[in-house]
Amino acid sequence: MRGSPRDARKYELMTVFSPDVPEDEIQGTIDRVVGYITTATGEVVDVNRDSPWGRRRLAYAIRHASRDVRDGFYTLYHFNVAPHRVEEIERELRLNDRIMRYLVTQYTPKPIDETAQAQETTETEAPAVTGVEAESAEGEPASAEVEPASATAADGESVTAGAEGERETAAVEATVEEPEAEATEPVEDVAEAAETPAAGDDEADTEEAARSEEE
Q1: Per-residue model confidence (pLDDT) at position 153
Q2: Which of the residues 59, 138, 149, 169 has an alpha carbon 20 to 30 A from that of 161?
Q3: CA separation, residue 146 to residues 131, 132, 143, 149, 165 (Å)
Q4: Global pTM?
């Protein structure tokens, strides 16, 4: 049967009430629009007049009741109704002089991705971790800084690895000079020289012996 609840579709209605409507009459005007929907055998799902809706400044002036209006009261409705009954609702909206603008569109709720929402929440709550403060899987602190490329040999001497270490080693070796070997006389020559009296000493002894004999 045409018009049965099985033919109902989801719709969204936005209305903009005139700022001339007193604050204490806003709820009554909203209930009147809800009555348009229920009269057309529709079912209202929710009505939202809270932020970001409610009284707002318009982007540009609207001509209403022979004057330019710059403010309006926004209300959002979600409801289910058969498609051929939407025209009845729109006719009632046009006859209401408190409604400056309205818009009815077919509404398709977006599915909620719980996995993506949970991941977004986790990323928001997780504190930022720097490389220095990060910890490994075993719980030991991991450093983001790179240690110098050096190793220790088995005998305890430091061994510099890499091209830079080789250049430094070559530079050090080039600046170190071998100590000059001191000239040393052979031991045999020194002993012989100590045992052999000098030629001048022999002559002096001979002359002294001759003078003694003459005397």
Answers
A1: 44
A2: 138
A3: 11, 11, 8, 9, 16
A4: 0.50
